[in-house]
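Why do we care about 3D structure at all? Because function follows from shape, and shape follows, mostly, from sequence. That is the central idea of this module. The next example makes it concrete: a single protein chain, its amino acid sequence, and then its structure expressed as tokens.
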Amino acid sequence: MADIIKLLPDHVANQIAAGEVVQRPASVVKELLENAIDAGATSIKLIVKEGGKTLIQVVDNGIGMSTTDARLSFERHATSKIQRAEDLFKLDTKGFRGEALASIAAIAHVEMQTKTELEEIGTHIKIEGSKIIFQETCATPKGTSLSVKNLFFNIPARRNFLKSNQVELRHITDEFNRVVLAHPKISFQYYSNGSELFNLPSSNLRQRVVKVFGSKTNQKLVPVNEETQVVKISGFIKKPEFAKKSRGEQYFFVNNRFIKSGYLNHAVMAAFEGLLKPNTHPGYFLYLDVDPATIDINIHPTKTEVKFDDEHTLYAIIRSTVKHSLGQFSVVPALDFQQDQNLEVPYSYASKGAEQPKVEVDSTFNPFAESKGGTLQLPKKKSTKGWENLYVGLESKVGKEVDFSSLSFESETITGSVFDDEDEEVKIASTTFQLHGKYVVTTVRSGMLVIDQGRAHQRILYERFLKYGTSQESVSQQLLFPLKLNFSRNELKDLLEIKEDLNALGFAFGEMDEETIEIKGVPVSMTATDVAVVLEQLLFDFRENTVSESFSQTDRLSKSLCKALAIKTGERLDQESQLALVNDLFACKEATVSPFNKRIYITITENDIANKF
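And the structure:
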């Protein structure tokens, strides 16, 4: 039998490795930024075009590479970070496996210019699909400039799986945020299609967080600091009242490396127990410094998952530290039944001295002084003379007949009934009742219907918003007092992308700056108090892509709106509202399933009931 096992060619092996290292353009950005940081750069510039599909360029002022190192850096398992297997257990750098550049060069057009400080000229290398096109000397400043063009040019199937430019750019921005938050001492610049998105100078941690997420973030932060023999914890948590539906502002860093850990996240959530609204998540920026020998960061290709030696102790420390910070800065209300609240001195009076109280009196005042007539001076009463004039013209019409012939009534739109009048088998009764604050039950000729009120309302709102969005005939109610809402720079960028679609659904926007947006009008089904919650839900769905991208933007926004505005379980409805819900539901084009393909109602026939006895 002939031998069938063969060694793969290097370019094929590199493409396979690229499947683990490079999932999308954001993966390339992460690897290149981390390499620049490991090179000791103090200033890093990131340039992308068309969501990273056309160009990803990272320019740094690090130590650079010699001609030999520049060529060798594109070989598999070539790295300057480790020399022995034992080094894997005390890593303090970012990239260490030596697969990043080799994997990227296998699936893209890569161009590198690099120079060390001691050399007079640098090195220019161009590689396409693992093949070196040329290598020559060039004039370039100290550091490294690495360009990655036409990602997945030789793997069309992988390129077809990439999302839209906007979605890929959001993923790149997320990776950029993770890197810049871990290294506030390094200055970063970020450009997309020629526009500057971020310009972050060297600063401290609090300034970096505020610069990334907006100036309003400063007042939302609560410092966290704790040092034990196991771990040193620093950073910030957000006050409970600023918790959001999304988990977008939750960052864990271990030894300045971003990680994802559901276990540690649960520790933070446990510390916030009883302080959060339902289905909301607190924001936090927590930095853990641990002994590198106690963690394993090589358990996942993207190195975002870390294995700790003693997770239980770490869980307890994080939970108690966050809880202590909430109490220390008076975020958690404290009850002390032994303390008299009237005796507490405000902090603003801590450095003030005692002042003698001053009382001003009128020394000439005498309540018993007599007037010239010999009587006491009493305040004069206001005259009530002429009170009848207040009612002149208001003649009583009691007993007179009122002529209604000149009155006109505004016409009302008649909604469809549950079933046509001609249907002889089943007809909706005129009475309904609510069950457990979740279901609306109504009788039909053959039995009864049990309707899920939340799903029914979702279907009604969905078709209404979809009609507004597709016909461009939105109905908007103008607010008497426009609302000004604060969002981070990333959130405002997402709002701008869907602004036209929101206008079609009934939103009216006013002035907008880097952190604030003005709302002048909202859809008719929405109240002013719902605006902030609804927009937060819209941004969450838009960022997380909870709705399939095969649908239009209007369809996705309509689903997000109906989910946010629909009545919830436990909401009580009066008889009139129940009947209106039933009639509006069966006036819809599709009354059987919700916009999220869940059954809205079930029918229980008389036979079903009889079979139970």
